[in-house]
Amino acid sequence: MRIDIITVLPEMLKSPFSYSILKRAQEKGLAEIHLHNLRDYSDDKHRRVDDYSFSKGAGMVMAIQPIEKALETLKGQRNYDQIIYTTPDGAVFNQQTANRLSMLENIIILCGHYKGIDQRIRDHYITMEISIGDYVLTGGELAAAVISDSIVRLIPGVLSDETSALTDSFQDHLLSPPVYTRPAEYKGMKVPDVLLSGNDQLIDDWKHEQAVERTKRLRPDLYRKYLGE
User: Fold this and answer.
1) Most buried among 4, 27, 92, 170, using CB within 10 Å?
2) Can you give the pLDDT at residue 229?
3) What stretches of the chain show up as alpha helix (H) in DSSP?
4) Which has the closest alpha carbon to 91: 81, 101, 104, 79?
5) Domains and CATH numbers, the chain
6) How many Cα atoms are found within 13 Å in the side-chain-facing hemisphere of 156?
7) Closest to 67 in 3D by CA, of 93, 36, 88
8) What is the pLDDT of residues 200-221, one digit of tens each?
């Protein structure tokens, strides 16, 4: 998978992609992540990428020219399955969306900034608009990092145990069950006996029951999806 990220703050994104799973995925050749400074595509002599809004509202708007040039440059080099724009008014990102995106070959993520981008870019270029939650960030860079992390870890071969991603929270509209490790007893606090039984079926049943109970208690909205409501 190749992810091209267009941003006005490329330095902000270098660190998240230089460690842990994202770093290993790139070293294995399973993922490519390329950062593009939007200012490099500006025709303005001062490399400006924003301008005033025609609506005369507060705040600046990302201009059409540098974004169009960046997108056309990248599209001229390869075909893209999705061109994603990170924006507070996009569809809220979830695990099912991450699953679908992880199966694609090439995607672009355009990081929103200021008061947003010229609407003509959204109308003519953007194929998917994503929000990572009902709140506003300074820019879309953190959202781009979240999206990239969540989809790259799903690519076969990225995780040492490929079944790990399949049992994560939200995969089946359930939260993960509690987890424990050694020692089996610590200062009077014990691991549930069923986990020490060695009976795989009992353990699986317990984990499912715990996942359902936790989801019902903590995330009733997810629980209703689990029930198919």
Assistant:
1) 4
2) 86
3) 10-14, 20-27, 64-75, 95-101, 119-124, 141-152, 163-166, 200-218, 220-226
4) 101
5) 2-152 (3.40.1280.10), 169-226 (1.10.1270.20)
6) 2
7) 36
8) 999 999 999 999 999 999 999 9
